[in-house]
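Supplementary Methods, section 5.1.

A reviewer requested that the exact input to the structure prediction be made available. We therefore reproduce it here, unchanged from the version used in the analyses.
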Amino acid sequence: MQVKTLNRIAVGMLVAATGAFSGIASSAEFPSRTIRIIVPVSAGGWGDVTTRVVAQKLGEVLGQSVLVDNRTGAGGLVGIRYTKEQPADGYTLMSTGSTLSIQEAVNKEPGYDALKDFAFVGTFARSPALVVAGAKSNYKSFSDLVADAKAHPGQISFGSAGIGTTTHIAAAMMLKQANLQMQHVPYKGNGAAMPDVIAGRVSFMIDAYGSSAAGIHGGLLKALAVTSDSRLPVLADVPTTAQQGLPGFTYYYWLGLFAPAGTPPDVIKKLNDAMSKVLSDPALKAKLQAQGTEPFYKTTADSAAFLKKDLTDNQDMIKTMGIPRQ
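The structure derived from this sequence is encoded token-by-token as follows.
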């Protein structure tokens, strides 16, 4: 009996050891198959377009295919919750930015905790926002829009990708600083809102250059202002919001890669190291800059600190603006 017991213990220890070594080998061999990046916004938006550019180069650096999977709905919550439930092995990642902290702040039951349910691989891109209107709009500048809004408080409308999305929050921040009252018209994503902006059914929308460029250069949209510190080289004739009566106002969208909590640290490091190589590539930099975007690389540790600050800043901002929890 004693020998049998010892044998069972030995077998158990062998199985445990084999599992442990198996896990180590798996991490050491990462990646050995296709990686999927969940994008919780609709195709064609800045987050989607930018992620696809970076994912292609990331696949080259890692030696495996990196696919983008759009899972949209509920202002990004569908994709965020989906990613949270995936295996923590590094093969399912998520590309998002302030949406993660904003949705946690504006929803009574977001279904996740940004700091507990995700491991932050690192930031990789940022872009200022544009104030865009339909090409046939009577507004020739952001100053014209502000003047009209002041003359008709509460009558001017603006579109967004949905309540609590970055397009909504950016506009709300801008209107608060300008002391303007407008009607908010939420849509299910940027793609759904843009036709109404073009047609003039809503007066304007805040959007990233990457997802508005085709409309601007195709004669469907006009850019009234940019929310960066200085003018964008690709839109040198468009003044900043600060240059048009909102001194000190800036707003940047940002993107980072997230993995489900529990993903091995060495896998996270491999992904962050690969991202560093991707963002130092001159051709990729030029491609991003042509889209009004700039590389925004941070180490995993610095990215974690950045996220904590973003969470706090957005929670405080949403309380200050009086946006109720949904």
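Confidence is low (pLDDT under 50) at residues 1-25. These observations are discussed further in the main text.
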